[in-house]
Amino acid sequence: MERAGTQQVRLLRRLPLFLLIWAIVSLAMWIPAIYALVLDDHSTSRSFLYSGILGLFLVAIIAMASSNRIPRRGTLGQLAVMLGCFTILPIFLAIPFHDALGTTTFLNAYFDMVSALTTTGADLFPDHNRLSAPLHLWRALVGWMGGLLMWVAAAAILAPLSLGGFEVTAKGQPGRPVSGVAQSERVDPRGRLLRVARALTPVYAGLTAVIWVLLLIAGEAGLTAVCHAMSVMATSGISPVGGMEGAQAGFTGEAIVFLFLFFALSRLTFSADTAATGYSRLDRDPEFRIGLLIVLAVALLLFFRVVAGVTEIGGQIAPLQALQVIWGMLFTVLAFLTTAGFESANWNDAQQLSGLGTPGLLLMGLALIGGGVATTAGGVKLLRVFALYLNGAREIDRLIYPSSVSGVGGGNRRIQSDGAFIAWIFLMLFALTLAVFNLLLAAMGSGFEQAMVLSVATLTTTGPLIELATDVPIRLIDLSAGAKLTLCAAMVIGRLETLAIIALITPSLWRD
Predict the structure, then answer these.
(1) Are 494 and 459 in contact (CB under 8 A)?
(2) Cβ pair 194, 408 in contact under 8 A
């Protein structure tokens, strides 16, 4: 028995990574199939069941055909597999979704699956009653698997290649393996990937289960509780009821979501596998500290904005209303900083109380900053912002004291000597990418404001921003086919980041 188990493990390790992921998502299709069967929705159940069986059959056929070939690509090849997962795999994921829904085009289904797998959560179907309960579950489940993929890939793929924010702290060049753990495991990158997956998957699933149980205790409906639990861990913002306003758990449910959103501020909240030496304590983590500072400062600014608006129209805020406004600001600011995009039920109340519109530009700024490195959050990332802050503070000191010498203290030991320069390069690449997608969307008929919101929302993987950043929500379903494909490309680039895409163009990958 042990020998048979060992042989199976060896076969799995020899199987191409893309086929492994394909097999996992094929098995995952049976979850909404079983749920639809319980609800007596037999047509939806058959769509997911048959698609899952078809996927496993294709995986088995391709695995047998390539059984004599041993994968030789290293960590950079695994990065190419990630690109394939976000672009090719959604075609397969969209098959049962399109067949079960039956009232939309396959392009719309593909767009929705790309949005879910990249944890963007852009809502293509504003009427949530149009989708059945199993389809809502499938969207949230795909987003959850996309978040798990990023958790594992951060430590097993991006960190060894000094990408995804690690280029600010690593000693090697972005896209090239560095000395240490990555150098010693270049001969066995698959082994590192499997070890990281075995270590992090129980943590990810366990935290999701805890959120689910807590939301059920708070009085949330079963489907909404499990979808919100998966969306919080993946920061996808996918909801079967339109967000926190449609939830039944009220303030308690928002408090639970708020607490677990902190896992997207820093990887040290759940793992120290990528922490620099001597920086495994959360209270000393610069990302977590600067994230808390941004949340408190922006929420306070928004609260004073509401107070000024109420005072201008001659009204007053009761103490209870003030507490509700503060809570709504804290929750929404943290949700958009972590690119989850959940909106507090008290957010609209504060806008109506003051008579002011939604501060869309500020929400876009929060999404651009993003969450922590190696988390499910998108955006520029807090560590890069911290590196640029340290460099700016140092330049100001040199203006005041030209002969001063920079001391090593606090958190700047975590940043390499060229960390601020690399962070600035990434910021410029991000800005150029944003400008390119703005021009592409404008060429396809979108206005400047609409193109800007769509570009920021997709590049930062913050789909709910599309509905909240403008006074009139943008209807994605009305966009042209070219615009939808352009947004799909933006979501993939935003998820993998520009430096990773550039690393994939290196000649060493294609010589293999």
Answers:
(1) yes
(2) no
The 3-class SS string of 127-139 reads: CHHHCCHHHHHHH
The pLDDT assigned to 355 comes to: 75
Residue type present at position 106:
F
Alpha-helical segments (H) within 371-418? 382-400
Tokens of 394: 């140092």
Which among 78, 144, 227, 114 has a CA at the least distance from the CA of 490? 114
Domain span including residue 436 = 416-511
Task: Give the residue among 439, 247, 415, 274 at the shortest CA–CA distance from 346.
Answer: 247
Q: What is the Cα–Cα distance from 479 to 451, expressed in whole angstroms? A: 11
Give the H/E segment covering residue 175: none
In the chain, the number of structural domains is 1
Is 151 within a domain?
Answer: no
Category of 238 on φ-ψ map: left (φ > 0), alpha (ψ -120 to 50) or beta: beta
User: Cα separation of 84 and 87, whole Å?
Assistant: 5
Residue 499 within a domain: yes
**Rounded to 5 degrees, what angle do the CA atoms 407, 413, 417 make?**
85
**Can you tell me the distance from the alpha carbon of 469 to that of 367, in angstroms, rounded to the nearest whole number?**
11
Instruction: Return the half-sphere exposure (C-beta side, CA atoms, 13 A cut-off) of residue 391.
Output: 17
* Residue 449: closest CA among 469, 475, 433: 469
Q: Of 149, 264, 158, whose CA–CA distance to 211 is shortest?
A: 264
Residues of the chain predicted below pLDDT 70: 1-13, 69-74, 170-188, 273-280, 405-414, 417, 507-512
Name the token pair of 263. 């896992």
One-character DSSP codes across 69-102 = PPP---HHHHHHHHHHHHHTHHHHHHHHHHHHH-
Q: What is the distance between the terminal CA atoms of the chain, rounded to a whole angstrom?
A: 37
- 487 within domain boundaries: yes
Is 322 among the domain residues? Answer: no
Place of tokens 């609209």: 348
Structure tokens at 494: 């935003």
pLDDT score recorded for residue 406: 63
Residues in the chain: 512
Tokens coding 244: 């926190």
Residue type, 170: A
Structural tokens at position 279: 């920086």
- Distance, CA of 305 to CA of 500 (rounded, Å): 39
pLDDT at 430: 94
The amino acid sitting at 11 is: L
Q: DSSP character for 480?
A: -
The closest alpha carbon to 490, from 445, 429, 433, 425, belongs to: 433
Q: Is there a contact between 460 and 367 (Cβ–Cβ < 8 Å)?
A: yes
Q: How far apart are CA 44 and CA 368, in angstroms?
A: 38
Q: What is the pLDDT of residues 8-37, one digit of tens each?
A: 556 666 778 899 999 999 999 999 999 999
Q: Where are the alpha helices (DSSP H) in 338-447?
A: 345-354, 360-369, 382-400, 419-443
| Residue 36 and residue 49 in contact, taking contact as beta carbons nearer than 8 Å | no
Instruction: Give the model's pLDDT for residue 277.
Output: 47
How far is residue 500's CA from residue 497's CA, in Å, rounded to a whole number? 6
